[in-house]
Specification:
62% of the residues lie in helices and 0% in strands. It is mainly α. It starts with a helix and ends in an 18-residue tail after the last helix.
């Protein structure tokens, strides 16, 4: 026997002696040595070769594999730690009133009705992203709304003069048969300009008609010409003065004319409320009164529109502020009620004011005589 053969035989004998399963069995030294040499140097790093060698040594691969599988199957699996931890947490978790309020709020939020369900096939309803549009409007209204009292910075004009100006612009708007959006934008431009520039009493009307001129060019398909505004102001200002003031106002508002007004939010909120045409017209009447009265400037257009819906529904005997309105307006009844109280006071004062352009407008048959409705005593 050669030296290499004796070395392989001795190594195999050591392996068998260390493993009790090989006790009493003949040593198959030649087969083992031949198998290892046939596999090459890389055969030692694979599990397949090791299993093959083990099967060759034992001579009973099926029986050993069955015993191995049975032994693995009998090992009990440990219980999931997170499961027991979660169960303990559920037992110890307090069910206080705050938790119950959260659950109740979630139930209310889930009970709203999808008002766009029937409009998915209408491309003009843009139901796919109408929610994103109004989310953007809520961001823009903060930037382009004048919610502070700028009159202390004015030396020659007062809130009463502004009231008279807007009341006159309502008549101009009605005379030219312009869109409601034009009126809302014109008042927005007046307030944004007066908040930045001090205006003399003589030029206040010029600011008003120029703002209406700008709003009409932005909103209308066929806006009135500049000479029409010269005529409507009884030639108090020339065409050149109006055009010069147009540039001044545009620079003051930084050419930002795409601004959300209360009328934009009203359409969405009226749809959420399921308002009919008379109720929607009543809401428009309340919002137009809010344009005239400067006291409503402290409120954002969105919550002013929500308050108009609340007050109009209360006037027709539907005071409920249900979950669908909460979902789409993003305001609770308590938040809306405070603004509705201010709007109710504006409504009462308008009935006794000497300047009633809005009241006369909405007392006509064209607008359903909604201004003649009884005023609620309280909310």
């Amino acid at each position: 026997m050669s030296l290499s053969t004796r070395s392989a035989t001795a190594a195999q004998g050591m392996v068998q002696d260390e493993n009790p399963r090989f006790a009493g069995k003949p040593r198959q030294t030649v087969a083992s040595s031949t198998s290892r040499r046939a596999g090459g140097a890389l055969s030692d790093i694979t599990n397949v070769t090791a299993q093959a060698n083990s099967m060759q040594v034992s001579g009973k691969p099926a029986q050993r594999q069955a015993r191995s599988t049975a032994s693995i199957a009998t090992i009990p699996k440990p219980a999931p730690i997170m499961h027991s931890f979660q169960e303990e947490m559920m037992v110890d978790e307090p069910t206080d009133s705050i938790f119950m309020d959260t659950q109740e709020a979630m139930q209310i939020e889930q009970s709203w009705t999808d008002i766009d369900e029937l409009d998915h096939q209408d491309p003009q309803a843009v139901t796919a992203y109408v929610g994103e549009i109004y989310d953007n409007c809520r961001q823009k209204e903060i930037l382009y709304s004048v919610t502070h009292n700028y009159m202390p910075g004015q030396s020659e004009i007062s809130e009463k003069m502004r009231y008279i100006l807007i009341d006159w612009l309502v008549e101009v708007h009605l005379k030219f048969k312009l869109l409601p959006e034009t009126m809302s934008l014109a008042v927005n431009l007046v307030d944004r300009f007066l908040a930045k520039h001090s205006v003399s009493r003589d030029n206040l009307q010029l600011v008003g008609i120029t703002s209406m001129f700008l709003a009409a060019k932005y909103e209308e398909i066929y806006p009135p010409e500049c000479n029409d505004f010269v005529y409507i102001s009884a030639s108090a200002y020339t065409r050149e003065q109006i055009l010069a003031m147009e540039g001044t106002i545009l620079n003051a508002v930084e050419f930002n004319l795409t601004v959300p007004t209360s009328l934009h939010f009203l359409r969405r909120f009226s749809k959420a409320a399921g308002s009919d045409y008379p109720t929607h017209t009543l809401c428009k009447y309340l919002l137009e009164l809010a344009l005239v009265d400067m006291r409503m400037n402290k409120h954002l257009p969105s919550i002013t529109a929500a308050a108009a819906v609340y007050l109009a529904r209360h006037s027709i005997g539907q005071p409920e502020w249900h979950s669908t309105l909460v979902h789409y307006t993003k305001y609770t009844e308590a938040e809306v009620l405070e603004v509705a109280q201010d709007l109710l006071q504006v409504l009462r004062d308008a009935q006794s004011s000497n300047h009633q352009a809005v009241v006369r407008k909405y007392s006509s048959r064209k607008f359903g005589e909604v201004a003649r409705r009884p005023i609620p005593q309280s909310l």
